[in-house]
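Example 3.2
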Amino acid sequence: MAVIVKGIEETEANDSKTARVSLLITAVSPTTAAGARSQLTSGGYTLGASYSGGISAGAKLSNLTYAPVEDSGGSTWTATAAYTDDAQSETAADFTKIESSTRVEAVDIWRTGASGAFLNYPQTPALFDNIGGTSVDSAGVPVSGLVVQQELSYTVRMNFTNSDQATVNSMIGTRNSALFLGANPGFALFTGVRRSRIAVDLYEVTYTFVWDAAAHLRQVPKRQADGDAELSGGHAVEVYARQPFPGVSNFSGLPGI
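Structure, written as tokens:
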């Protein structure tokens, strides 16, 4: 086992939310990290344990690191216990961050000035009728057009990570069924989630979305059996709008939103 011989340093952060306790321990048997950790945890240094110092009764052990002292032959170890006062830290109710960036995406187009009717929600069919507009393709070969897109991120803080993972997974890759962050139904696509542990039982969760000016619809021409566009007068005879993301979800059901 290992015996804690003394606390050699104790510091408190200026914001009174964190504290670090440095310890010097001597190993009896076994002279390994397992032995050192066994004594540390049995002595109360376990994740989530309360802090007995002065910063707050609500402070909990958030991190524990330890290493052998050089040239000690494994008989002496140092350890640092870091405590965080979640009671004084921001909670999910206190913290929300929304960020956005706008760019243009180059896509293949066969028509400009297409009818806006195909943008109407819910756009659940995978393929829509001929969109009309003015032909700009060359013998069925598309040109590049620009679609405005906005990348959105919505960050919250929560006291859990995985309890609603199934709900989150079921919504990834779907579009919004209701107005969301200013996006009309069908225009915002849920692309993923990031989680970061920032304190004991406190996580920062960031949801990411992409708003698309064409509601994520893309143009495809009517094709012949050989795969080439069917032509009339040197242009694709008909062009359709295809929706690659037909599923929709109510994003207000995401945890923390």
